Amino acid sequence: MWSFGCIVAELFLGLPLFPGASEFDLLRRMIEILGGQPPDYLLKEAKNTSKFFKCIGSIHNMENGEISGGGRSAYQALTEEEYEARELKKPLIGKEYFSHKNLEAIVTNYPYRKNLPKEDIIKESQIRLALIDFLRGLVDFDPAKRWSPLQASKHPFVTGEPFTCPYRPPPETPRL
C-alpha cells in the first residue's frame, strides 16, 4: 500500500513524493514530508537503524509501539554531518523539487490548472483535501496502521463521495 500511495502522489504531482538520491536522503525526505519518523518499536527491530538514527533515550518500557519517556522517541535521525562522521562519506542529497516541506502544503499548494473557474477551484481544493487524507492512510510508517486495499477502496477520494472529515476505515475482517 505504501508503494500505491507513492504512485498516487506521483500521478498528481508529476514527480516522486520522496525523490531521494540516497538511502539517507530518502529517509530524510520521508521524515520531513510525513512530519515524523518511524515508531520506536520498528526502529528497535530494523537492521539499519544505527546507520541513520542515534539512540537518545531509554526504550526499555516500550510496549505495543508506545514511546517511553513522556511521548518522546528514543531515537533521533542523524544530521548530514553526523551521518558523514559515522559512515565516513558524505550522503548524496538530491534536488529539492518542492518549495513546501510537508505533505499537506505540497498537495494544497500545487498549482491549479490555468483559467480554472472559481467554482472548479473550490471543488478541486476539496478533492485535494481528500487526496491528502487518502495518502496519509497509505504512506504511514507503521505497517500495522497502514490501510489495506479494501479499507482504501472505501475512501471518499476513491468512491467520489463528499469528503467532510478524516476518514476512519472500517476494521478489517479476520481471514480464516
From TrEMBL:
<dbReference type="GO" id="GO:0004713">
    <property type="term" value="F:protein tyrosine kinase activity"/>
</dbReference>
<feature type="signal peptide">
    <location>
        <begin position="1"/>
        <end position="23"/>
    </location>
</feature>
<keyword id="KW-0547">Nucleotide-binding</keyword>
<dbReference type="GO" id="GO:0004674">
    <property type="term" value="F:protein serine/threonine kinase activity"/>
</dbReference>
<dbReference type="GO" id="GO:0005524">
    <property type="term" value="F:ATP binding"/>
</dbReference>
<dbReference type="GO" id="GO:0005737">
    <property type="term" value="C:cytoplasm"/>
</dbReference>
<keyword id="KW-0723">Serine/threonine-protein kinase</keyword>
<keyword id="KW-0067">ATP-binding</keyword>
<protein>
    <recommendedName>
        <fullName>Protein kinase domain-containing protein</fullName>
    </recommendedName>
</protein>
<dbReference type="InterPro" id="IPR011009">
    <property type="entry name" value="Kinase-like_dom_sf"/>
</dbReference>
<feature type="domain" description="Protein kinase">
    <location>
        <begin position="1"/>
        <end position="158"/>
    </location>
</feature>
<dbReference type="InterPro" id="IPR000719">
    <property type="entry name" value="Prot_kinase_dom"/>
</dbReference>
<dbReference type="InterPro" id="IPR050494">
    <property type="entry name" value="Ser_Thr_dual-spec_kinase"/>
</dbReference>
<keyword id="KW-0418">Kinase</keyword>
<keyword id="KW-0808">Transferase</keyword>
<keyword id="KW-0732">Signal</keyword>
